[in-house]
Input
Amino acid sequence: MMRTGDEMYALCTELFPICRSITGDGVRQTLQMLRRIVPEMTLHEVPSGTQAFDWTVPKEWNVRDAWIKNSKGEKILDFQKTNLHVMGYSLPVDKKVTLAELLPLIHTQPDQPDAIPYVTSYYKERYGFCMTQNQKDALPEDTYHIYIDSELKIGSLTYGEILIPSTEGNEDEIFLSTYVCHPSMANNELSGPAVTIYLAKWLLEKKHRRYNYRIIFIPETIGAITYLSQHLPEMKKRIRAGFNISCVGDDRTYSYVASRYGDTLADKVAKNVLSFHYPEYKQYSFLQRGSDERQYNAPGVDLPVCAVCRSKYGEYPEYHTSKDDMGLISPSGLYGAYAVYRDIIEALEYNHRYQVQCVCEPQLGKRGLYPTISQKGCYDDIKSMTNFIAYADGSNDLIDISNSIHAPVKHLISIAEKLLENHLIECMEE
Amino acid sequence: MMRTGDEMYALCTELFPICRSITGDGVRQTLQMLRRIVPEMTLHEVPSGTQAFDWTVPKEWNVRDAWIKNSKGEKILDFQKTNLHVMGYSLPVDKKVTLAELLPLIHTQPDQPDAIPYVTSYYKERYGFCMTQNQKDALPEDTYHIYIDSELKIGSLTYGEILIPSTEGNEDEIFLSTYVCHPSMANNELSGPAVTIYLAKWLLEKKHRRYNYRIIFIPETIGAITYLSQHLPEMKKRIRAGFNISCVGDDRTYSYVASRYGDTLADKVAKNVLSFHYPEYKQYSFLQRGSDERQYNAPGVDLPVCAVCRSKYGEYPEYHTSKDDMGLISPSGLYGAYAVYRDIIEALEYNHRYQVQCVCEPQLGKRGLYPTISQKGCYDDIKSMTNFIAYADGSNDLIDISNSIHAPVKHLISIAEKLLENHLIECMEE
Amino acid sequence: MMRTGDEMYALCTELFPICRSITGDGVRQTLQMLRRIVPEMTLHEVPSGTQAFDWTVPKEWNVRDAWIKNSKGEKILDFQKTNLHVMGYSLPVDKKVTLAELLPLIHTQPDQPDAIPYVTSYYKERYGFCMTQNQKDALPEDTYHIYIDSELKIGSLTYGEILIPSTEGNEDEIFLSTYVCHPSMANNELSGPAVTIYLAKWLLEKKHRRYNYRIIFIPETIGAITYLSQHLPEMKKRIRAGFNISCVGDDRTYSYVASRYGDTLADKVAKNVLSFHYPEYKQYSFLQRGSDERQYNAPGVDLPVCAVCRSKYGEYPEYHTSKDDMGLISPSGLYGAYAVYRDIIEALEYNHRYQVQCVCEPQLGKRGLYPTISQKGCYDDIKSMTNFIAYADGSNDLIDISNSIHAPVKHLISIAEKLLENHLIECMEE
Output
């Protein structure tokens, strides 16, 4: 099973060097590589200038090269080494500047003097460079040649979508969203696309799916807003639970970011699964949000979306810097998140309300489900089964029962199957 | 008052040697002895083979004698010394066996090597013996003569019932259930029948009873299921609160076992009374259930039944072994539980919603209910009365008020009577 | 701003020597002095004998002088030194008594031997004196001349009322109540009238008032009951929140006394404002009530009234003794309470439900409300604004939002104004 962890890590390694932004060829190249794993993904282009609620799809940005040379012609900063050196959405530039002119164009992370920060200026046209605070501090008086070979043009915003149908033909959907707009950073955000594409692969291989699955790979914020502006009515009608998948690659912890009121089915299943998988997981309120759950939970959108992460964006020191590199994530880190999301999806698939079919406790013994000799302690092993039966009164769904009787949904699914076989419980109609 | 404690203890002493099981003459003999205290008890026989929901009333079992002799003819185990030596519902046997053949027939309690466990096999026909682990370990190679003089026959299941009518002629009932199927053990379960029969006696002597009382003495599990299968519709219609009375004889603590959702009137009054009587009482969720509250709370039955115990079944080391003997229980232990159940019943009897009869605070002073000189601290003594009045707004019952103002229901009953006399409050219609 | 603190303290100093009671000229004199600050106050006289629910307006009491002389004619107790020396509502007396006859007439505070207690006997006719326990203990055998020049006559109960209209013409009211019946004590109770009259002054100066304000200065208990008996229907219809203003003058702490169920708008705003102003404030349940919130919350009255105090009545050692003097309160103590009540009133004035006017997050950047360069940490300053928008979904009022996003209402008022200007939110109809 850990093979999937290795595959996800290899995928991230391959995607790492690509210079992604909210538009442009880096996004297209990334989506093409994801399609090799799930060819069912369709690609979509939304033209610059398209209105999306309060926003407008911006121009498309591409960058080919960038550097700063000193007066000796030595490159003291080179986009080819890491694309973080160029501020995202920089205009092209090619000119000589003094040190005094150069300094305001350089962004650093003063509290982490050896890290290059990730900086963008999507909605105000300017240019800029990023380097470490140490490097900036050591820049001598000189004449510098600054060069950015970029282009900002009427083009389009690109996203990928995978729609996986229910095998039951029902209309309800589970929604997964991740983003593909970050340049060379690993946990935030190659882990999200990698885990999500392998979840899509696993879902496609499942024999039975209660739900439809809507899975999107978009640029953050503007991509989510654009997608919502084109799909909101059907999403509101169909989506029962959704997850924003981001920062799912390291090994340090598990986290959960609540929806606006923390009370949706998505929150319920996420908290249940994490409480058994990793009881010390960190709970963040919606006040600590930061990714596309912002849009999915905005007033008027109101989708039941939360997030399960490993180390959450904004909460680990390497976040949004060059330190968020391939050494920060691992096959086991990615696999842990993948496994949790699979458990979440399985719990949702089985999350029916169940109704016991007899009055009083059933006589389990005559069905071979119970010890025939009664002695102190002999019932401990079948406690989950009798507890399941006690709460299968039609008012609780499987997650409620799991919460009530302190047994993982995973374990209850196998009990439910045994009881269904023996006609001791039935699934209730929705 | 402690005389009642002594009487209950004497009753247990007399009942202790009888070999009870879920059917048979031991149960009949026990019920006859209880009838000496409350002749109003009626006895009922339900034939073997009667269907009871998912269950069937089993054959009737009686045992006269049992022993194991070694090759010298010495009895190394003797039913006459304690009836726990025979596994409940053992088939008759009379044969010689080797040590190797004997050992699998012997049940012990390995974690308590000097205790004889209580073991039964009601629904699979077999035979067996129980002894201490120490004795079993010391058995030499030998030829053993094993002998059980028992009988498993078409007969009946016996139970006792006491119905005590309301003096107001209303239909609502309080339900008390205890069980009479355990052989020679004291806390679990002679304490239950002893306390319950004396509660019945006290109820019969009361001049006024708001409620009807339905009190049953049954074999555990199959008895409760059988009784329910014959009375469920009327019970669901009438019962307002019920209690499974078990393990009410020792002095160590008080416990409460919640109903399925812990939210019935029975739970409410039990928690209220215990919180004043013994604030450190142990609260067990329904997941820690184990006695007939299992049936009364099963989906489809849904009766408002919880349990108040001293040391709860399954939670004390002597449970279901020969160590649960007459030394474990005491007159004060029994009396403590009896007193708590009386307080619970009194609280239910007075548990009306009350409505104050004037706007603003009444002028208590002119009725002699209030100090006429006002000085710091002078109102401390009548705080419960003014607090009672403040919350007697028609929305709270007496237990709610007790919980809100932190005063025991007992104390509030006397205040209520004073205020009723002065026409300052009235009982509200249900 | 602290000038208001000084003015309130000066007012208390001026009012301190007056001998107030629940009726009489001391009350009238006090109200006249308050009218110098707010001439809009109207004075009302309710005749002795008027029925008020379960109560009757008592006779009017006035006292001119009182003393005890020893046999040498020396005054050993003198009303002119402090009016606390005479038990409130004492009948006139002028006679010689032995020490043995004197002692039962003298009230002391044994647990505070150097304090003169505040003692009254409003509803039983008697006379009495108050002195320190130390003085009482030192009284020698002697013949004493006791003298009280008082009068108990058919007269009236006096109260003051200020009605300040809404500038919006709506019917809803905020209610403020304080009392003017305590003789020479400072925190309890000159602080209440002083803070309340300055709140009235501030309210009158406001350009815009959403609510009407009903502000009363009454004798405690009988005054509140009398006022309610004459105004209850309109008060129940109009009052949205009210506060009993008492003990608001010292510097030690802030306190809150809950309404009967602690769940009214008054409780909600009081707890919110205090939680930001003084997070360690003391919360008292309605069981710790003691002032006129008793009447406003009585069953049948059911007004949404709670109290915010500094050191609450009954909870500080000087309470109801001569130690509650002008040294106990301070300009800053009075001002602190005044400021909290102003914040409470402002929060109520702005406490609308707000609804964001676009789907998804608005693009704040294009309105100059958001940084144009995106880098780790750059959004910290505008978190309250984005959080406000996230919860401005029409279901939350301003206090709910403040509670949800942990930002003071004060701060949210300025954000709301900015968002209203930009048409990003709208106030919802009630």
Notes: The domain at 353-427 of chain C is CATH 1.10.10 (Arc Repressor Mutant, subunit A). The mean pLDDT of chain C is 96. The interface with chain B takes residues 52-55, 87, 107, 109, 117-124, 126, 128, 221, 224-225, 228-229, 232, 260, 286-287, 289, 294-295, 297-302, 314, 319-321 of chain C (CB under 8 Å).
